Amino acid sequence: MNIKPNCYDYPRYYELAFAFRDLAHEVDVIQQTIQQFARVDTHTVLTLACGPSPHLLELSARGLQFVGLDINPAMLAYSKAKAQQAGIAAKFYQQSMTAFQLEQPVDYILIALGDLYVQSNEELDSHLSSVAAALRPGGLFLLDWCIQFEPANMFKSEAEMWEVKQGDLHLKCQVRMQPFDHPNQLFEEQLAIEVQEGEQCLSLASHSVKRAIYPQEFLQLIKMMQQFEFIGWWNNWTLDEPLTRQTQTIFRPITLLRKR
C-alpha cells in the first residue's frame, strides 16, 4: 500500500493551498467583533489548530499579540520561523485542542476554516471546558465553519477542487467530506494536494475524523455549560449577514460566543 506524505507535514504547501482567503478582511471582522461585543480589553488572540498561522502577520500588524496552538510539530516550527523572521514575539503551544492549558488566559480565541477536531461528545465537552479556562471573562470565542448548518450540501459525494499557482509552483487541491457513522455524527475529511514545483512532483494526503455539530444542539450545549453567552452567527465572514431562516446559501459561517 502506497502511503502518501501527510499534508500537515508540509506547511508551506498547505498555507498556499488555502491562500484564497482575504486575511485582512477576516482580521477586520475580528476587530469589529471586539469593538461591538467584547467586555474586556483585547490584546491577545489565541488561534486553535493554528497550522501555518495565516493570521499571524495581520493580527500583529494591528497590535494584537498572537498565540498559536497546534499538535503538529512541523506546523509549529513553520509558524515559529515565520514569527521570528518578522520580528514578532508570538507564543506557541504544542497541545491537543481537545484538552489544553495555557500559562495565562487570553482575550480572544479563534478556530478557522472548520478546524474543530473533536470526535465525541466527551471531546467536545473537554474542548469547550479548555476554551472557557483559557479565555478571560468578557472575551470572545469565534468559530469559523465549525457548525454544520447545511449537512446535505456539505457532505457531497464529489470533491471540492481548486488550483493555486505561484511562480513555478502549481498546486492541485481537493477536499471531500464523507459521513460514515450517522448515530455518532462522524465524518471523514479527506484533503489531497498534488504539488508540482519546477521538476519536483509530490502527492500529499490527509484524513481526519470529525464529529458534526449542528446548530440547535450547539446552542443547547452552550446553555447547559453556563460558561458562555451566545452572541450570534453570521454568513460569509460578515456581520452584515446574520443567519436567519431566509438565508439561502451558507458559506463559511461564523459563530460568536462570549465568556461569562
From TrEMBL:
One of its GO terms (molecular function) is methyltransferase activity. It holds the Pfam family Methyltransf_25. It comes from the Bacteria. GO terms for biological process: methylation. Keywords: Methyltransferase, Transferase. SUPFAM superfamilies: S-adenosyl-L-methionine-dependent methyltransferases (SSF53335). Residues 45-139 form the Methyltransferase domain. This is Methyltransferase domain-containing protein.
